[in-house]
Amino acid sequence: MNIQKFRIGKPFNTEAVILDFPIESAVPEYIRVDNEEGKIYISLPLDSQDIIYGLGEQMGGINKRGRKYRSFCSDDPYHTEEKEALYGAHNFFIISGKTTVGYFIDFPGQIHWDMGFMEEDKISITIDGTNADIYVISGNGENEIVKDFRTIIGTSYMPPMWAFGYQQSRWSYPDKNEINRIIEGYEKAGIPLDTVYLDIDYMDNFKDFTINQKAFPDFEKYVAELKEKGIRLIPIIDAGIKWEKGFDVYEEGAKNNYFCKDRKGNDFKAAVWPGICCFPDYLKADARRWFGDKFLTLTKKGIQGFWIDMNEPALFYSKEKYQEAVDYVKEYSGEDLNCWEFFSSRDKFTQLSNNNEDYKNMMHLDGTVCHYDVHNLYGYMMTKGVCESLPKDTLLFSRASYIGSHRYGGIWTGDNASWWSHILLNLRMLPSLNMCGYLYIGADCGGFNNNASRELLLRWMQLSVFTPLFRNHSALGTRSQEAFAFGNSEDFKKVIEVRYRLIPYLYSLVKKCAENNEMMFKPLGFEFKDKLSLECDDQLLIGDEIMIAPIYQQNKTGRTVYLPEEMTFVKLSGSDVTHKETLKKGIHYIDVAIDEVPFFVRKDKKVPLCNPAKNVDNLDITIAEYI
Amino acid sequence: MNIQKFRIGKPFNTEAVILDFPIESAVPEYIRVDNEEGKIYISLPLDSQDIIYGLGEQMGGINKRGRKYRSFCSDDPYHTEEKEALYGAHNFFIISGKTTVGYFIDFPGQIHWDMGFMEEDKISITIDGTNADIYVISGNGENEIVKDFRTIIGTSYMPPMWAFGYQQSRWSYPDKNEINRIIEGYEKAGIPLDTVYLDIDYMDNFKDFTINQKAFPDFEKYVAELKEKGIRLIPIIDAGIKWEKGFDVYEEGAKNNYFCKDRKGNDFKAAVWPGICCFPDYLKADARRWFGDKFLTLTKKGIQGFWIDMNEPALFYSKEKYQEAVDYVKEYSGEDLNCWEFFSSRDKFTQLSNNNEDYKNMMHLDGTVCHYDVHNLYGYMMTKGVCESLPKDTLLFSRASYIGSHRYGGIWTGDNASWWSHILLNLRMLPSLNMCGYLYIGADCGGFNNNASRELLLRWMQLSVFTPLFRNHSALGTRSQEAFAFGNSEDFKKVIEVRYRLIPYLYSLVKKCAENNEMMFKPLGFEFKDKLSLECDDQLLIGDEIMIAPIYQQNKTGRTVYLPEEMTFVKLSGSDVTHKETLKKGIHYIDVAIDEVPFFVRKDKKVPLCNPAKNVDNLDITIAEYI
Q1: Residue in A518, A536, A547, A550 with CA at minimum distance from that of residue A607
Q2: Which residues pair with A600 in a beta bridge?
Q3: What confidence tens digit (pLDDT) does each residue in B434-470 have?
Q4: What's the ipTM?
Q5: Which band of pLDDT confidence, cut at 50, 70 and 90, is reported for residue A238?
Q6: C-alpha distances in Å from residue B560, one per residue of A249, A586, B91, B237
Q7: Which one, A338, A440, A521, B396, has least CB within 10 Å?
Q8: Mean pLDDT of chain A
Q9: Between β-strands A166-168 and B410-412, what pairing exists: parallel, antiparallel or unpaired?
Q10: pLDDT digits (tens, 9 = 90+) for B181-200
Q11: Which residues of chain A lie closer than 8 angstroms to B65, CB-CB?
Q12: Distance CA A131, CA B272 (A)
């Protein structure tokens, strides 16, 4: 490994890197520290042909060049093109060109990335602080650099095999009856199903580690009943604890000083789903342990998997700032506001959520560390705490993340939308997340916000069939999005069954990638250096065997695909191989019916398929055929 | 012409159709009137192969199938995929398949369109009212149906030739000095320029027909000075008139009863840019005439073109509803709001703008007609009034529109964003707008909201070079977006010069399309019936001569193109023809440099080119060569 470590100031230990490195004696010239401004500036030249890979969970293409980004875990449910920050903060990128070099900035606060946006031939990075570790990784190409980086950040989380089954979620299935209706829907349609998710409404008034007794009169028994059928219930746990006298979790946290403080030394409070909450200080080992152990109350009831949420942390409002907003608009009562006065009074309310002033008032480690400066560690340290308490082979994935958390759980890419463009966004994030260590990953298939069409969901599934986390999830108020809800459910059955045929392949591939610090999903440009491969933004390589090129546009029955070398074009549908044809290197147009899963098998490679089953517990992973 | 006219109830006369038709004696079964609900339902079957064209200014693809839409002129600056309504209401569509039929619903209020979304094999249209004229147009294919429809709605507006020059806008160039700086920037870079736009800040406190004297000490002289250089200033005029005692325009309107009323019979008031405004009742002939004649105060100062805005109408807030919002949130002062209480207090402020309760309180024609029921006519009737007062050959285009307004002015497609996907959105709307009569059209090149990259603007220009309105426009607070602002301005010069070379062709094509009721931009499926043409969503035919296939993705130096027949692939750059090659029918990959404009010349056709010039006044339209 050829890795240089540069240290500026006295960095907070993020535990992202698990190997010790000697610190270089001199910081290179392209790194400039401005102590007066309290910032570090990094400036790197870009050659006209350079491609930028990485940055994990971000908008933009596979090539990150020509845009701005921000590392600051953000609960922003509108993933429009200009957005600079999503839920994760993944500060690793590679500049690939005449020379190919990887960079990791280990800094837990905000970073601004201008990747050739304001000036096309320059990367300008601004770190909002003066303490950081910077790793520069040289190696023989992208694959080697990624492998070296993955080696120093440690082995990725590996979920149990049943977590590779098809999963159904919604905000929310509020009670037993609704969950039974969903499971019956799948059973009647003969569509495989492995899990049903419990979103926030399963709790008593959104309080972590409680269960609404009316909705689930005997939860433990119900969990067991479903497990009997091969279906697992996956409850959500949020980051904040309801501030409520007498609520045992709150009382324990308060008594033991487990919560973040405000600048006055009181427990920091802000509202989330349950109303006003306190926030466990996951950066404290004892608080983290206490919170993680709470999950055992649920595993004891038979729960084998969790998704943890709102851990950027998302804050709806603080009472102080809400009162400020009310006072502000009261001033204008009866007045004729001009346009700017009107906009600012509206903004007072729209800007209450996830407000930096609240983050700056939130303190960690007994008031010694300001949350704003270590913001990106919150979801990571929550994931770590939970993972370390959970029994082995429990499914765990998080919304917020920072490199390091890949060792403790997977992630899903948050509140996307039922937009066609988000199929492509989903595809493009897969390799960049793999680069940063995240292997158990997936987007909400079909889209979380807005209404999905039948066609959108089926086309999206034709991609999700390949993602380790294959979960259909949708928001309150949107159209029913279960695979049986659109009519002609035979098409859905055929597509989802293909997933089950691929599970032995996908599971062992993810396992191998975890063990060897490799990527499951790769840009074509990691293997092929011709122009069309380097610019390809809507196809991916999977392992050494597969290339995918899903359809991600409405009202299309086919698409063009670029083959960088000879491959076998395959379409699967249910138990059938509906198409198999060797295609030469070059551009091809392929037809893909709505009930088919298309992919390409690379030259001299074979992909094992088993027979489909109604869930993973019932899956015979014996190879039925090779394709 | 084979047109059937069905009448339900007693429709409001929108003047959309200018020819008289006999009314069919019986309404067909697929139209159902529900007088109790106050709605008309239209249900049409869709064959699996059917394509839906039309609906004018809308999101979605060229094929409108599989989505929902809404006809309700809306000032919504976030053009995300799920949006159902933009600024225009264009109720004409064609179902193209085994049989091909056009439908026009002449109804001035809200219409909901489910074009095969909830059920894939069915169109379900809900008209929010029980009075409407419905036209069903049968004919030999899409082109004939469009021509027949265009014939019955009357001849499209045709702008002066200089309006085909390259145009620069921004919210805002607030004064003479800034405008001079912009013009100098173009002059120094040698980039052609025909107009500079004045957005709202040129006025005195946003008051229509006023000019900020400090910013423009001698406006008339300045207009003349710029005209001398071949540059025209294009001021904005908004729909609302500031409510201000002593402001002559307000006083005249109030005295003469020209303003819309509220339900109590007072002048209806709501806030827009100037604060509280009154709204001319453009549905009244005398008010419309009075407002139109006001423009002559500016044409007398030498102004030759206008853009009219905020005429959906956009309403920021009404005092009544603002007070309601304040009272609502005051209730919660000091309380711990739960999440729903918090969301609803925030929504009270976010839902103040363009609120239906305000539209329902706004009355036309001396209190006899509720605005909500005729909402979509407001921008249309404003355009009509202005056009009828203006001297011949004045440039006029509007943001809001309804079919009929195409006779009086062009439109631009409102507040888009500097998103790559909006290049494609721009392309896809061009043929649907042509279908509805709009020929002088264009989107804000480079995107209005958010920051543009150099590459985005250049790629967008490579499309806009072909749109009749070629205007670069950007919002307050965004990065400078002028063609000289990004460095290496030679690339911009080369692309914009190609526009000037094409002006004789484009101008005469638009003129011919206006005279013959034809489309300038056509989907490939209007001419070719093979599958790839029918599904093609990112290429267009222009006239009978050209096919375009612009690059609309970041970090690409080429793209695949489908040629439905043999064509000549041409690239122009400045005065040069950089590429010319005959390509066969089929899929091709083309390279396009950042300073080139690519297009395809159809078999046995020729496109005339003149030499570029610094503006249209200096353009020699003699043909220099044919390509």
Answers
A1: A547
A2: A547, A569
A3: 999 999 999 999 999 999 999 999 999 999 999 999 9
A4: 0.97
A5: very high
A6: 59, 12, 33, 43
A7: A338
A8: 98
A9: unpaired
A10: 999 999 999 999 999 999 99
A11: 554-555
A12: 48
User: Measuring CA to CA, which residue among B85, B24, B32, B39 is closest to residue B375?
Assistant: B85
B479 contacts in A (CB within 8 Å)?
118
At B206-236, the pLDDT tens digits run 999 999 999 999 999 999 999 999 999 999 9
Q: What is the pLDDT of residue A297?
A: 98
For residue B422, the distance in angstroms to the closest alpha carbon of chain A comes to 10
Interface test with A, best of B115, B272, B326 (most A CBs within 10 A): B326
DSSP β-bridge partners for residue B168 = B196, B472
**Can you tell me whether residue B66 is helix, strand or coil?**
coil
C-alpha to C-alpha distance for A137 and A21, rounded to whole angstroms: 12
Residue B585 near residue B561 (C-beta atoms within 8 A) = no
pLDDT in the model for residue B152: 98
Q: How far apart are CA B155 and CA B517, in angstroms?
A: 7
DSSP string, A10-52: ---------S--PBPSS--TTEEEETTTTEEEEEEE--TT-EE
Collect all residues with Cβ–Cβ distance below 8 Å to A440 and sequence separation of at least 6: A156, A157, A158, A159, A163, A397, A409, A410, A411, A468, A469, A510
Asked if A326 and B349 come within 8 Å (Cβ–Cβ), the reply is: no
Cβ-based neighbour number of residue B35 at 10 Å:
9
For the record, the structure tokens of A109 come out as 């606060």
Residue A335 reports pLDDT greater than 90: no
Instruction: Please give the residue of chain A at the shortest CA–CA distance from B269.
Output: A336
**CA distance to A163, A426, A430, A528, B453, per residue, from A537 (Å):** 28, 12, 12, 13, 19
- Cβ of B342 under 8 Å from any chain A Cβ? yes
CB neighbours of residue A558 within 10 Å: 16
> What pTM was computed for the model?
0.98
State phi, psi for A278 to the nearest 5 degrees.
-110, 160
d(CA A90, CA B224): 56
pLDDT given for residue B498 in this prediction: 98
Q: What is the pLDDT of residue A331?
A: 87
What integer pLDDT is reported at residue B352 of this predicted model?
A: 97
| Dihedral angle sign, alpha carbons of residues B115, B118, B120, B124 | negative
Size of interface A-B (CB pairs under 8 A): 185
Q: Residue B287: its pLDDT value, please?
A: 98
Give counts: helices (H), strands (E), chain A: 14, 37
Residue in B66, B319, B332 nearest the CB of A453: B66
Average pLDDT over residues A160-183: 98
pLDDT given at position B1: 86
Contact yes or no for B323 and A338 at CB 8 A: no
CB contact under 8 A, B81 and A272: no
Concatenated DSSP letters of A490-539: HHHHHHHHHHHHHHHHHHHHHHHHHHHT--SEE-GGGT--SHHHHH--S-
Please indicate if any CB of chain B lies within 8 Å of the CB of A135.
Answer: no
- C-alpha dihedral, A102 to A108 to A109 to A113, nearest 10°: 10
Closest Cβ–Cβ partner in A81, A82, A120 for B454: A120
Q: What is the pLDDT of residue B460?
A: 98
Binning pLDDT at 50, 70 and 90, where does residue A1 land? confident
Q: What DSSP character marks residue B594?
A: T
Half-sphere CA count of B620, side-chain side, radius 13 A: 5
Phi and psi dihedrals of A41, rounded to 5? -115, 130
pLDDT digit string (tens) for A503-549? 999 999 999 999 999 999 999 999 999 999 999 999 999 999 999 99
Is there a contact between B38 and B130 (Cβ–Cβ < 8 Å)? Answer: yes
Q: B450 touching A, CB under 8 A?
A: yes
Residue B166 has pLDDT above 90, yes or no: yes
List CB contacts of B114: < 8 A, sequence separation 6 or more.
Answer: B68, B122, B123, B124, B125, B126
